Structure prediction request, 640 residues.
Amino acid sequence: MSHFRIDIRQRAEEVLALYPRPRSAMLPLLHLAQEQDGYVSDEGIAEVAELTLTTPADVRGTALFYDMFHLEPVGRYVVGICTNIACLLAGGDELLAHASTSLDCPVGSTSSDGFFSLEETECLADCDFAPCVQVNHRYVRTTTPAAFDAVVAELRAGRLDHDVPQHGTLIRVRRAGGLHAPGAEVAAERSAASAAREARTPKETK
Amino acid sequence: MATLTAPRIVLSRAGYADSHTLTRYLATGGYDGLRKALTMFPEAVASEVDQASLLGRGGAGFPAGRKWSMLRKAPISYLVVNGDESEPATFKDHLLLERDPNQLVEGVIIAAYALQVSSVYIFVRGEFALGLERVQQAVNDAYEIGALGSKIFGSDFSIDVVVHPGAGAYICGEETALIEALEGKRGFPRIKPPFFPAVAGLYGEPTVVNNVETMSNLPWIVNNGGAAFAALGGGRSTGTRLFALAGRVNNPGVFEIEMVKNTFRDLIYDPQLGGGVIDDKKIKAIIPGGVSAPWFGPDLLDLPLGQDEVAEKGSMLGSGSIVVMDETTCVVRAAWRITKFFSRESCGQCTPCREGSGWIERAMYRVEHGGGRMEDIDLLLDLCDNIAPGLTWPPQQTTICVLGPSIPSSVHSAIKMFRDDFVEHVTKGGCPHD
Ligand SMILES: Cc1cc2nc3c(=O)[nH]c(=O)nc-3n(C[C@H](O)[C@H](O)[C@H](O)COP(=O)(O)O)c2cc1C
Ligand code: SF4
Ligand code: FES
Prediction:
C-alpha cells in the first residue's frame, strides 16, 4: 500500500525517471512527501526509502541535514524572518521580536492555533527588501511591523492563498514530460561529434 | 561619477514586467544566440567564451573558458549549474532566476553544446520557490519550441535539462557538496584532490559546475562575440557584472555595471546606483564580496571594482555583494551575526570549522551582550589564527572546503579596524548601541 496519494506517487515516479540513479531523486521526493503531509512523516520517509532503494534511516539522516524539511508537523504557514547581515542592519531582530509577540509564538515553535510557525532564517537572498520575510518560501516583502501584521491578517482570512500555498507545496509548475533525448541517439551523436573533432584538430607533431 | 555607458548584458529585459515569459524573451532576441551557436563548431563557441575572458561569477572567479578547455581532453559527462545562492547579502542569481529564466536556459544549452554534454542539472536553492517555478516553466517552454530534447532546432545535438531543487543548506553552494546533494546525500564537501569536479564529479564522472550568472552571459557573448565582451571592463575583469548592494544605503539593489571602470564609491554614491548612505552618515566599513571576505575601511572606497584590484588589497570581490556599514552600525554585532551564520552552516566534517565557529560565536556573543572579558579580544584573534593560520587572505587551507578558513574574516577585520569598539563593549559590560 502506498502512503503517497495516487497523484503524488505518479509525480514521484516521473521524478525518478529523470535521474540515472534513483537516490538522486532524494531531495525532490522528500519535497513531495512534505507537500502531501505538510511535513516529512515516518510513512513518507518509508516510501521515499522504497523509491530511492535506500533505508528509512538513511532517508531520515539525509532529510535532517536540510533545513527545509520538517520532521515534525508545523503550522499551515511557516514564517521565516531573516536576521543576517543586511537584515540586521535594517532591523531584522526587531521585526522578529515583533512577529513573535504578534503571532503569540516563540521563535522556533508553532502557535497554539496551529496556524503559524516562526523561524529565524539565514539570508534569503532578497536583501534589498530587508528585513526579509518569507511565508511558506514565498517572499511577502513586508519590512515594517505594521505591514507584517497586515499580511498576517490577510493570511488568516485566506486572502493570500493564491500567492502563498499551504506549507509543503514548493513547486506548482510541473515538468511537461520526461527525458527526450534517447540514450542510444545521444551516444551515436557524441561519437560522430568526437570523430569530426578528431578530423578537425591538427595532430601534434613531434 | 560612475561610468554607465556599457550595454546591459544579463539585465537587458529587467525593465519589462513580463521579462520572465517566453513571449517577451522571443520578442527581444531570445534564442538567437543558440541558433547562431548551432551553426558553429563547438570549439568555436568555447573559443568565443575564452576570448571573452568571462570570469566565473560564483565566487572563486575562475575563467569559464579556461575551466572548459582544461577538460577538452576527456569528454565531459555532466554540466551542473549552481543556483544555490546563499552567501549572505548576495541576491543577484535570485533576480536572474526569477526575472530572466529563459536567458539562463539558453546560456545553459549553449554551454552544453560547446562542451558536447547532453545531460544538464540546474540546481536551484530550495527557498527560491518562485524561481524554481519560473526556471521549470522556461525548461518546459524550451522543449516546446525545440530548443531542448532530441536534435534541437534541427541540428545533430540532443540534450536534456533537469531542474533540481535544493532543500536549505548554505554549504550546498560549494560545488562538491552540491554534487553530493544531486546524488541524494547530505551536502558534505568532498575531500580534495581531485580539486575539480572535472576529474571526478557527478557519479564519479567528469563534470563542469558553473554559476547562474556565468551561464546567463553566454547568449550575449555568442551574439556579439567574445571580443566585444572583453572590450568592456578592464584588466582580467572583463565585461559587466552584477553587484548586489545592501546595508545602509538609500537605494539597495542589484546593478549591472562595467567592472574596473567603476569604484566602490561610484556604486555606493551614484544617484542612479546606491544613491548614498542613509541620512548622509559616514561609512564605517564595507564588506566587498560576500561575508566570507575581509572588510575594507572608507579609505579604500576609490578602489576599482575589479577582481585583481580587490585581491591586491587583501580581500575578494567574491560573489559580488557589497554591504555598507555606517557610523550607526555596531561592528561587534555585525561580526557576531556573521559568525553565527557560519557556525550554523558548518557541515561539521572538519574540527577547526565545526568547533572554531562555535567558540568564536560564543566569545563574540559574550562581548556583544555583556559578560565579555578584556582577554576575550586576544582570545578571539587566537581562535581565528587557529582556523586560518597567519590570518592572510586568501587563507591557508586547513579544512576540506573554504567555508572554514572564511570564518575569521569578519571577526579579524572588526578587531583589527575597530579594537576600541571591542574594548568599549567590555568596559561598558555590553553594547553601547543598545
Ligand atoms: C562555502 C561555499 C559556498 C559557495 N556557494 C556558492 C553559491 O551559492 N553559488 C555559486 O555559484 N557558487 C558558490 N560557491 C563556489 C562554487 O564552489 C563554484 O566555485 C562555482 O559554482 C563555480 O562556478 P563559476 O566558475 O561559474 O563561478 C561556493 C563555494 C564555497 C566554498
Ligand atoms: S570547512 Fe566546514 S563546511 Fe567545509 S567541509 Fe569542513 S566542516 Fe564542512
Ligand atoms: S541578509 Fe536578509 S535576506 Fe539577505
